[in-house]
Amino acid sequence: MYIVTAEEMYDMDNGAMNKVGLDGKLLMENAGRAIAAVIKERVKNTDVIRIFAGGGNNGGDGFVIGRTLLDDGYDVTVYQVVPDEKLTGDALYHKQRFERCGGIVSILQTSFEAGQLAGEADAVVDAIAGIGLNGRLREPLASMTADINEKASYVFSVDIPSGLPANEGWDDFDAIQANETIIAGYPKMSAFLERTAPYYGTWTVVSFGLPSVVTSNCSRRSVWTEEQFRHTMPKRKQYSHKGTHGKGLAAGGSAEMPGSIAMTASAALRSGAGLITAATVRSAIPTVASQCVEATYLALEETDGLLTCDRPISFDHYDAVAMGMGMGRHVEGRRFIQEALEKATTPLIIDADGLYHVKALLESLKRRWAPVILTPHLGEMAMLAGITVSELRQRPFAYAKTFAENYGVHLVLKGPFTIITSPDGCQTVTTVGNAGLAKGGSGDVLSGVILAMMMQDQSIMEALGNACFAHGKAADMLVSESHSMYDLIASDLLHEMVNVYRTCIEQS
């Protein structure tokens, strides 16, 4: 499923009309009918439904929705929120069809009317403004949306909540707060941004007949779904052995933070790694080994409980390496990361304190030919990119893409929506996971899952998509079955991985 900007969506629409020859009225008919079909699943035919329609394509969809519901016996009225002279083209055509089928259209004059009418309805359909909006809603539409938000009991938004930007980079807007948004074609970028996503409520995507000849290669962003997880996860062969599934190294930890490396090693083993070696300071090994008895251990030299680089590690025997978890921010840690960047010839995953050291080693990333995977949360990403967290929240897709391309890395930007970016700028997003993951140790577990996935028979982007999906899905299953977002802790994820695999792979 693609994730598109407003411009990309318009390119697809224009391609369907100008290259293929599909009439815009037909596309609007298809979209409106598809959206109406979803609405009919949610409401009773005795419910009072009021549609607020603007003057553009979004309003035209509203008239098609109204006619479709009217034909099926629903109690529906359309309220036009713009003067007649602002209604043209395909939207005007479908208004006329609605009226000829017995539909009633009333033109609203004030925001008070909109609020009062919304409050009297069982369901409101918001078809006021679509993805073409540039800037804030003007009056009286801004006040109308505010009054609808205050009075409506349930709102369906058509394609996008009116007033909401489709693209990233906008922080100043007035928008409908939808209970549910029914998206036409493909989800827009703002459905995956921390600031704008809540306005969508829950969302559903419907198709309206765009031919594949105009949709393929129109976007380099996509959603990583459970279907892709099922399809791309390598199946275990009957005669495979532990070496088949990879020998990984998890390096980090300290005397004061032994749990981080323990969770990374355990997560890698739970996620399918054949062999895992945990490299940590000698004083932490008893603690780590008591939590992960299946791993082997490599003792690192230490000073005051922190690792040192007095005795170099040989990376030659490992299929992938994860490091940085709990290692500390001392200068020896930076030397350790530098050594791995220069000597490890297999995929290198860097997380946590390792990302702090990478900030001073950015040029080394450019010189490395073997894959590097960085896994920052928003604060760490802002530090690496030299921007504020607020700036990053407004444009996470753009900043992640620029950084990954500039430094030749795979970037896993963790957050409510995790954005995975390849060195060539392709991006995929996972939508699983919940606020229960906002706990110390969750990232350490994810690093272990990524370590395991990197050693399986799949591409790097497939490995990262599957790792992030499995990690988030485990949290969702725990919260739905036995935990809450309050009590969920990172180690719970380790034990839930079995259910992710059994549910999503072995029983598929």
TrEMBL record:
Residues 225-504 form the YjeF C-terminal domain. Coiled coil: none annotated. (6S)-NADPHX binds at residues 57-61, 130-136, 159, 326, 377, 444. Binds 1 potassium ion per subunit. The keyword Amino-acid biosynthesis does not apply. Its EC number is 4.2.1.136, 5.1.99.6. K(+) binds at residues 58, 126, 162. It catalyses: (6R)-NADHX = (6S)-NADHX; (6S)-NADPHX + ADP = AMP + phosphate + NADPH + H(+); (6R)-NADPHX = (6S)-NADPHX; (6S)-NADHX + ADP = AMP + phosphate + NADH + H(+). Signal peptide: none annotated. AMP binds at residues 414-418, 443. It comes from the Bacteria. Residues 9-216 form the YjeF N-terminal domain. Its cofactor is Mg(2+); K(+). CDD domains: YXKO-related. Keywords: ATP-binding, Isomerase, Lyase, Metal-binding, Multifunctional enzyme, NAD, NADP, Nucleotide-binding, Potassium. PROSITE patterns: YJEF_C_2, YJEF_C_3, YJEF_N. SUPFAM superfamilies: Ribokinase-like, YjeF N-terminal domain-like. Catalyzes the epimerization of the S- and R-forms of NAD(P)HX, a damaged form of NAD(P)H that is a result of enzymatic or heat-dependent hydration. This is a prerequisite for the S-specific NAD(P)H-hydrate dehydratase to allow the repair of both epimers of NAD(P)HX. Bifunctional enzyme that catalyzes the epimerization of the S- and R-forms of NAD(P)HX and the dehydration of the S-form of NAD(P)HX at the expense of ADP, which is converted to AMP. This allows the repair of both epimers of NAD(P)HX, a damaged form of NAD(P)H that is a result of enzymatic or heat-dependent hydration. Belongs to the NnrE/AIBP family. Homotetramer. This is Bifunctional NAD(P)H-hydrate repair enzyme.
